[in-house]
TrEMBL record:
Protein keywords: ATP synthesis, CF(0), Chloroplast, Coiled coil, Hydrogen ion transport, Ion transport, Membrane, Plastid, Thylakoid, Transmembrane, Transmembrane helix, Transport
Entry similarity comment: Belongs to the ATPase B chain family.
Compartments, record wording: Membrane; Plastid, Chloroplast thylakoid membrane
Highest taxon in the source lineage: Eukaryota
Pfam families, A to Z: ATP-synt_B (PF00430)
Chain ranges passing through the membrane: 32-49
Residue ranges the record marks as coiled coil: 64-98
The protein, known as: ATP synthase subunit b, chloroplastic
UniProt miscellaneous comment: In plastids the F-type ATPase is also known as CF(1)CF(0).
Gene giving rise to this polypeptide: atpF
Biological classification of the source: Eukaryota, Viridiplantae, Streptophyta, Embryophyta, Tracheophyta
UniProt keyword Disulfide bond, yes or no: no
Topology in membrane: Single-pass membrane protein
Protein role: F(1)F(0) ATP synthase produces ATP from ADP in the presence of a proton or sodium gradient. F-type ATPases consist of two structural domains, F(1) containing the extramembraneous catalytic core and F(0) containing the membrane proton channel, linked together by a central stalk and a peripheral stalk. During catalysis, ATP synthesis in the catalytic domain of F(1) is coupled via a rotary mechanism of the central stalk subunits to proton translocation.
Length: 184
């Protein structure tokens, strides 16, 4: 133990060549040990390391090839999708144009049908007004005629005596009979 602690205490001390032991001087032994280990690893591990590196290289190249194939497939799918998108957009534009023209046609048809309906309603209204006017005129004529007839009868009754009254009625009956014969 004394030997170990002395070596840590005195870093400049080298053990003599005649004795065999462990050199615990880290700064002196590490480069030598590392060069020996590296030499052994390079000499014996060269084949294994070459095989590992070749396998890794092949895996990387295979992964790159697979990635390239996947990229090509993705590019082809993207182009097909873009082509389908263009086709669908063209169809949508066509449907939109046809839809707008169809909407305009339907709008025109609806406007025409509405105008026709309004015209028919206006005609019906005018006919109804004309009919109501004719009916009102007819009713007014009847009332005027009745009132005139009642007034005339009242005037005749007050002015005529019974003999004049009888002659007037007979004359009127004669006129009505002659009119009846003409119509037959």
């Amino acid at each position: 133990m004394k030997n170990i602690t002395d070596s840590f205490v005195s870093l400049g001390h080298w053990p003599s060549a005649s004795s065999f032991g462990f050199n615990t001087d880290i700064l002196a032994t590490n480069p030598i040990n590392l060069s020996v280990v590296l030499g052994v690893l390079i000499y014996f591990g060269k084949g294994v390391l070459t095989d590992l590196l070749d396998n890794r290289k092949q895996r990387i190249l295979s992964t790159i090839r697979n990635s390239e194939e996947l990229r090509r497939g993705a590019v082809e799918q993207l182009e097909r999708a873009r082509s389908r998108l263009r086709k669908v957009e063209m169809e949508a534009d066509e449907y939109r144009r046809n839809g707008y023209s169809e909407i305009e046609r339907e709008k025109e048809n609806l406007i025409n049908a509405t105008c026709d309906s309004l015209e028919r309603l206006e005609n019906y209204k005018n006919e109804t007004l004309h009919f109501e006017q004719q009916r009102a005129i007819s009713q007014v004529r009847q009332r005027v005629f009745q009132q005139a007839l009642q007034g005339a009868l009242g005037t005749l009754n007050s002015c005529l005596n019974s003999e004049l009254h009888f002659r007037t009625i007979s004359a009127n009956i004669g006129i009505l009979r002659s009119m009846e014969e003409i119509t037959d």
